[in-house]
Design goal:
alpha/beta; single chain; 184 residues
Length: 184
């Protein structure tokens, strides 16, 4: 279990930010890896931003481990906002930290400096957060738990055990190195 403590630290960081507690992802249809164009669909609304514009989402199947393409797959979601016209180009925005779902780029301020000025805005959600195969600890993220949907420090041990039971050796698929795209 190489680097298991680092992976668990990263995973628990995701959960302490509330990144694992998302509903509605089941309504998106997965697009298998291929050379075909991405399948774009209406995005579900994400808590805690119920008033955000939904944009369009593409849910894509990628390998759990890039070096082991037959080890299984998980979902990665990319959200996009299209300008009305004229289109000047595309901006890819990365959340930049553990637990970041990219929701910060769905705000009116970001849309004002990008989409409203003709730039398409693409926001990938890293594995383990948001709608991208979220890491979850249902008991520790329940509304009646210590910090509600956020995982408290006292709940980390039980949460780590729940993730270990769910993912086993595949928990390493959520390490930073696996978030990078490695073409096969």
């Amino acid at each position: 279990m190489r680097g298991l403590s680092a992976v668990l630290s990263c995973c628990l960081g995701l959960l302490s930010c509330g990144a694992g507690n998302v509903s509605g992802g089941e309504s998106l249809t997965s697009h298998d890896r291929s050379e075909d164009a991405l399948l774009w669909q209406a995005c579900p609304k994400l808590p805690p931003l119920p008033d955000e514009p939904p944009g369009e989402c593409s849910k894509n199947r990628v390998p759990l481990f890039w070096a082991e393409p037959d080890a299984g797959e998980l979902d990665i979601v990319v959200r996009r906002f299209q300008p009305r016209s004229p289109r000047r180009g595309t901006l890819w925005m990365l959340a930049g930290g553990p637990g970041g779902t990219g929701a910060v780029f769905n705000t009116p301020a970001w849309r004002g400096i990008s989409v409203e000025r003709g730039w398409a805005l693409m926001v990938p959600t890293p594995r383990g957060s948001g709608l991208s195969t979220p890491l979850q600890c249902p008991e520790q993220e329940a509304a009646g738990s210590d910090h509600g949907v956020l995982v408290s420090e006292a709940e980390f041990g039980a949460c780590a055990s729940a993730m270990g039971e769910r993912w086993g050796k595949n928990l390493g698929a959520f390490a930073s190195a696996e978030c990078a795209f490695r073409p096969s």
